[in-house]
Amino acid sequence: MKGQEAAEWFRNTVSKVRTEIAKVIVGQDEVVEGVLVGLAANGHILLEGMPGLGKTLLVKTLGECLGLEVRRIQFTPDLMPADVTGTNVLASDDAGGRRFEFRPGPIFANLVLADEINRATPKTQSAMLEAMQERSITVGGHMHTLDEPFLVMATQNPVEQEGTYPLPEAQLDRFLLKVTVPFLDRGGLAEVVRRTTGTATSSASQVASREDVLQLREVVKEVPVADDVLQYALTLILATHPESKEAPDETKKYVRYGSSPRGAQAIVTTAKVYALMDGRYNVSKDDLKRAAMPALRHRILLNFEAEADGLNTDRIVRHVLLQADLADKDPIHA
Fold first, then answer.
1. Contact 254, 248 (CB under 8 A)
2. Cα–Cα distance between 272 and 230 in angstroms, integer?
3. In the predicted model, is pLDDT for residue 24 greater than 90?
């Protein structure tokens, strides 16, 4: 299965999962889409939003739709690495002997919700993020491989910072996308209240399998990217670096460090998924523009002047996109 046939299968599979999720989750289309993109692109998602917006329910529902194992880890300052990865315990066998036996932790699941990840100490964060990057953990000198598919959804509260350990930039960089979770509008809020305070119950059925998820990832890898589209992606990345000759004035004024090479990988991979979601087996520049905000907003480090002027990274990404469009239309005068 290749080409347009693969694109149609991809779109239909993702559409079935999204429709099933909508039976349980109200609104939050951008969040649902971000999680599905991460699942198909084999990348982890960082969600930033206030508590009580359905993040745990989303992971549980996604697991039901795909027949995958789901675990939730509540991160707190006293959480130890072994509480995440598991540890060796002394166990007795039938003959009365004793030996060390590995007891896996909650990281051994297909879908893991790392709730309020920035409340754990850096040591525990490192244990979690090592599993995310290497897809394995090492305990007592033995490596244990995590089952695929493996997806981490990590959440953090954008307001309450007391008692937190913010993720360093190098750790943030391991997340494919950062998705902001908005508060529901009046209609969405009313529907949530109706569904949760009455007698009616909503549930999701399995509409795809573990094998389908792995096949989605293979299809994404096969999607070709034209050279001019790739060059546009590189233009976006270089425009986030203040020392680059392609950087606009706003980047030079407000940005301390720009996106890493992982940002280029993320924006291209995410654009491939967006193209397939539309049923296309080719990536367009519009796909890159759509992927730019969630792929780059957590990979740009602003300086003190930006903080003083009340700027955030979303504004920098929007300005980079604007300048890239101008340069694309009129490369001489841009």
1. no
2. 11
3. no
